[in-house]
Each structure stands twice: as C-alpha cells, then as structure tokens.
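ok here's Galectin, seq below lol
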Amino acid sequence: MSPGEKLDPIPDSFILQPPVFHPVVPYVTTIFGGLHAGKMVMLQGVVPLDAHSRFQVDFQCGCSLCPRPDIAFHFNPRFHTTKPHVICNTLHGGRWQREARWPHLALRGSSFLILFLFGNEEVKVSVNGQHFLHFRYRLPLSHVDTLGIFGDILVEAVGFLNINPFVEGSREYPAGHPFLLMSPRLEVPCSHALPQGLWPGQVIIVRALVLQEPKHFTLSLRDQASRAPVTLRASFTDRTLAWISPWGQKKLISAPFLFYPRRFFEVLLLCQEGGLKLALNGQGLGATSVNQQALEQLRELRISGSVRLYCVHS
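and the structure came out like this:
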C-alpha cells in the first residue's frame, strides 16, 4: 500500500483483534467492539509451581479505577487450599453477587489453555480441551468492553476469535488450538504434513498477521507429486481473494478484503464430501469443489507470502 492510501471499509464482523503475547500481569486491555454472542477469548499460560494464591480473569464493563467497574463475569481459580477450585461471580454496583463454585481444577505448576466461549445466555469455559463450566449472564453481555487478568499467572498469549461457523464442526470446536510461539515450524514458507490426506469433518486452521509491506498470501494443498488441486490466494496488488485451479484459472471469492498490513486473520477450511468449505475470521465464504479421491491423496499444506504465522493445525 502507498502512504496515505485509504482502506476499503470492512464490516465489524470480519475484524479480529490481534493476539497479545507475554503481557505483564496485571494486564488490562480493551476488547475491540466489545463482547457479543459468538465471540471467544483464548488464554494460554502457566501457573508457576511456587504460586501460593490465585489468579482471576475479569470481563469488565469499563476500566475505571474509582469507582470500580462492574464485572459481568469473574473467573477465579484458587489453589492455596488442599482442594483447588474455581469461583465465578458478578460484581454490580460495587457489590458481589452470589458466588458459584466448581471443584477440581489443579493448574499449579502446569501450562494451560482456557477458552471462554460467549453464547446468547451464558459463557462456557473449557480447560485444556475439556468443558469445565458454564455461567449464566447476570449483566448484559453488550456492556462488556474490557478484559482484566490479575494474580499468580504467567500469560503466554491472549487471543480474540470468532466461533466456528461450520455446523459440521460443532462437535469439536476447531479454533481451540494454542498459538505456537517462536516455533521453527512456522517459518514462512511453511510446509505442514498431511500424512493421511483430508477426510470429511477434518478442519485446517491457519492464523497469521500480515506484514508491513505485503505482496501476497498463498495457501496450497499438494499431493505426493507436488500437484496443487487446491490453492487459495490473496493478492495485495488488486485486493482480491480467489481459488486458483491447477491450470491457473482464478475464481474470485466474494468477501471484503481483509489482508491489510498488520491485520490479524484466521482461515478455516472444512473438508466435506466433494470439496472444502472456507471461513475467514469466523465468517463462512462458501465452498470449492474437489473430488474425494483428490482430497484423500493430499499430503502437504504449504503456506507462503507476506505473513507471520501464529498457528497451523489440521
């Protein structure tokens, strides 16, 4: 992009807040656009072995110090007792409401991945891939615009994502995979093995940040002979996203162009009978046809271009 060039407007539903890595705790940040049903916050970190007390994750209605803001959802693991547990509550008008308690969460001395998935009436929380609790809202979710993290915790990453738009993938939420920090496996160009090919229900996840002076972003699926029956390419020169056939034919995808400098994005590809469904930043963008035999013969996911990779999973 040239200096002063204007960005095309992007719908709010397509915008993802960039992840934050290794923030200093206590950590407080604005949630871009606030919380709404379909949003997910991912917390990746470690509870030190010598931690003696607790930590808390607060989804707040504002960030003032005095008066203290309302807290719509207070998630508070406590491990200073012989029976570690989690307290959840709501702070409204300076008063704590009735607390809810869940036992059996031993995190001290171990790494973890916590997912907060916000629905229409309640938030669901999973820990290390296992559902742990659900908590019904006591304050409107639309009032939440701030995330606060406090206590005995080392935070490796905080991610802000949208839910999986594929009904077929609802059994195992595909976005719940950690960011891989400083991994040589994520150097671009990146090659990711698909030893068993692709089968119906399998989901490919790519999360990345567009670099400052981008040229292109290309994701291709290749067989053992290095043929690419499936290629997805974002062109920064003409601001298009397209499927590219093995013969070089371009099929444009109707969607806002998201791949601007310093923008974070997530690509989901869901394998189904006869093709692949595409979602970008949690928004479904249709499908491309690929016969099942070709999908089963795929052996490599290859990524190239002007991006910094944070997650590649299949």
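fwiw The mean pLDDT is 88. kinda neat tbh
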